[in-house]
Amino acid sequence: MDIDARTTFGGIIFIFLLALVVLEIIWSWRKDKKVYNTKDTLANLGIFAGFQLTKILFFGFQYAIMANLSKFALFPMESSMWVFLISFLAVDFVYYWYHRLSHKIKLLWAFHLVHHSSLFMNLTVSYRLNWLSALLTPFVVAPLILIGLPFEFVAASFGLNLLYQFFLHTEAVGKLGFIEGILATPSAHRVHHGSDKQYIDKNFGGVFMVWDRIFGSYQPETTRPTYGITTGFISNNPFVLVFKAFVDYFKGKMDYKG
To answer: What is the DSSP string of 96-161?
Structure first.
């Protein structure tokens, strides 16, 4: 796919996601759900804009790291549909552990805090992503590239994993029956964003929830979660939200969970 085609495709995806946000806002207003707050949503949009900028700034860094790692692959695999499916599954497995460790290791939590900082759950919250997280991604997926999975497949799978998670950040979708506990669902991800005692450090899966089942971190939604971190509201300033946890980390004051 050439650059023009990627740009067109990306534009179509953006318009589609924006349309879903608008529909969710209408749903929230008509049903009086109050899942949107103006200042919170503006903060989300500010963080989203910064994240898109850093994606461009760090693209060369990410590409160079992954391309060079592929030169040392132990068992280089040829590109095929099956290899892509293996890459997608492997990326989700690695994402599970990266996500879980991001709630356990304080330095990784400094990157991840911004995603849990909102007191609301809506589609725009999905893009509360740290502007510096692109610096970590190549190293997170490095083992898969060193094994021999094509780095282009690994990068694409990681991107699709994050895209899938956009649809999980909503209260407009209830429980989905037998799918719960197999795939990540809005219900399962609402639990993950809960700061309630029974919900903390649960449901880390990006696309598949089976990893949580296997490794004992699965928790079904039993009551409506209280969103945010355990210490409550932080700020509506995107810069504060992105960098607060780093400041707290270096001050040794990171005593909150999300």
So the answer is: HHHHHHHTTSHHHHHHHGGGG--SS-SGGGGG---TTGGGTHHHHSHHHHHHT--HHHHHHHHHHH
Helices (H) and strands (E) in the chain, counts: 10, 0
Q: How many domains does the chain have?
A: 1
Question: What is the structure's pLDDT at 5?
Answer: 61
Q: What is the structure's pLDDT at 8?
A: 77
| 6 in a structural domain | no
In a domain, 2, yes or no: no
pLDDT for res 200: 97
* Residue 1 clears pLDDT 80, i.e. is over it: no
pLDDT per residue as tens digits for the range 31-43? 999 999 999 999 9
Is residue 7 assigned to a domain? no
Is the pLDDT score of 151 beyond 80? Answer: yes
Of 206, 202, 114, 203, give the one whose Cα is nearest residue 157: 206
Instruction: Look up residue 74 and give its two tokens.
Output: 């132990």
DSSP codes, 13-33: HHHHHHHHHHHHHHHHHHHT-
CA 92 to CA 87: how far, in whole Å?
9
In this structure, the number of other CB atoms found within 10 A of the CB of residue 100 comes to 19
Amino acid at 82: W
Identify the DSSP state of 216. Answer: T
Flag whether pLDDT at 2 surpasses 60: no
* 105 token code pair: 């290791």
Task: Say which amino acid occupies 133.
Answer: S
Is 60 exceeded by the pLDDT of residue 214? yes
Residue 187 lies in a domain: yes
Domain membership of residue 178 as a residue range: 35-251
